[in-house]
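Why should sequence recovery work at all? Because a backbone constrains its sequence more than one might expect. Tight turns favour small or flexible residues, buried strands favour hydrophobic ones, and helices have their own preferences. The token representation captures these environments compactly. In the example below, the structure is given first.
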């Protein structure tokens, strides 16, 4: 139901698009009036803030395939989203009775291919890629396919589902564009349609660039909002680059910069300390992330330290789903293609559904359902 409301809100907003492909008012040809998009934004944000309490994923499938060895190749274990997913993978693997070995690429291009080679040498029955880009990794994935080793991934492509042109049978994710639009609309709603926005992305990942493009389109649609800049900063170099980038943007835009949007919470791990160091009042800057709902993001939202929202994904659930998708492939069945709905976490709703543990963990019974599918106690 919530996904339907999100889609309906987006449809209302995007009905302003003219043939030229830009957002336009049906009367004047200008950007959408602030009052119109603000109404849409507030409705969509309200919908996104309601957690999914009813399970809308699979309920049937093959029983647990015994004794499997799984290699997990993580893009960067410093990324809170990836850590959350791996926690879910490990939890689910214990239930289903599989062994898991983790390899960390540390966000380094050369190391990605090396650790995939190491993972192959470990002779796994299945491979999980956590982060990265399936197409960029294709040369290192083909040897797995040649040995008929099934592959699933998390956030390895722009959309959830099978990744065409690669041997990745399932990319587990919420809808990235839905996540991005909810983030940008939250900024519009919080600012009463007057946000001055800088967007942070990493163009080396298709999913990140698609999120940034979707956020930028929403901000441009708001007549009284200003898209100041889309800044390309490599996620793997956030610790190195974001402090200087933040100071440079503050110097360039001053009070005009009121909202920071990012494709991942990790950007704000290194932005918030700078904002504190320069003495910026917390009310002067609001940070919202289009993923993934890291522990540090939850802490900033709980303490009111600049970050006012994150469109948190159910990271542990995604870990369980990765194990279930592999189990289906081992059993010779198709993947489910399940896409979990987006969920906006703010100070108003952070106390529920895992927020006390600094994560979003929907109370929809997914663990018990997967146990029943696998016929595990």
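From this structural description, the recovered sequence reads:
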């Amino acid at each position: 139901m919530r996904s339907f409301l999100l889609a309906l809100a987006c449809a209302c907003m995007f009905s302003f698009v003219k043939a030229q492909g830009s957002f336009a008012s049906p009367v004047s040809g200008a950007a959408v009036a602030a009052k119109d998009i603000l109404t849409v934004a507030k409705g969509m944000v309200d919908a996104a803030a309601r957690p999914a309490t009813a399970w809308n994923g699979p309920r049937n499938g093959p029983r647990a395939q015994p004794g499997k060895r799984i290699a997990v190749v993580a893009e960067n274990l410093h990324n809170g989203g990836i850590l959350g997913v791996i926690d879910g993978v490990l939890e689910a693997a214990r239930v289903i009775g599989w062994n898991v070995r983790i390899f960390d690429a540390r966000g380094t291009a050369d190391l990605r291919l090396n650790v995939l080679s190491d993972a192959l040498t470990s002779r796994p029955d299945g491979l999980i890629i956590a982060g990265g880009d399936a197409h960029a990794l294709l040369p290192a994935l083909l040897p797995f396919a040649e040995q008929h080793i099934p592959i699933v991934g998390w956030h390895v492509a722009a959309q959830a589902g099978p990744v065409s042109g690669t041997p990745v049978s399932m990319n587990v994710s919420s809808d990235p564009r839905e996540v991005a639009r909810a983030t940008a609309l939250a900024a519009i709603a919080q600012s009463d349609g007057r946000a001055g926005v800088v967007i942070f992305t990493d163009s080396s990942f298709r999913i990140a660039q698609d999120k940034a493009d979707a956020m930028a389109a929403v901000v441009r649609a708001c007549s009284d909002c200003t898209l100041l800049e889309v800044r390309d900063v490599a996620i793997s170099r956030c610790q190195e680059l974001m402090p200087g980038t933040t100071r440079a943007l503050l110097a360039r835009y001053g009070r005009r910069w009121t909202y920071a949007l990012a494709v991942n919470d990790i950007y704000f791990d290194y932005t918030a300390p700078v904002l504190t160091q320069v003495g910026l009042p917390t009310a002067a800057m609001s940070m919202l992330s289009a993923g993934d709902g890291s522990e540090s993001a939850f802490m900033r939202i709980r303490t009111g330290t600049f970050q006012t929202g994150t469109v948190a994904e159910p990271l542990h659930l995604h870990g369980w789903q990765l194990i279930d998708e592999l189990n289906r492939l081992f059993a010779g069945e198709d993947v489910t293609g399940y896409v979990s709905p987006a969920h906006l976490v703010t100070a108003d709703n952070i106390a529920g559904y895992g927020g006390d543990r600094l994560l979003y963990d929907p109370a929809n019974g997914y663990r018990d359902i997967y146990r029943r599918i696998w016929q595990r106690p």
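A few observations help interpret the result. Confidence is low (pLDDT under 50) at residues 1-30.
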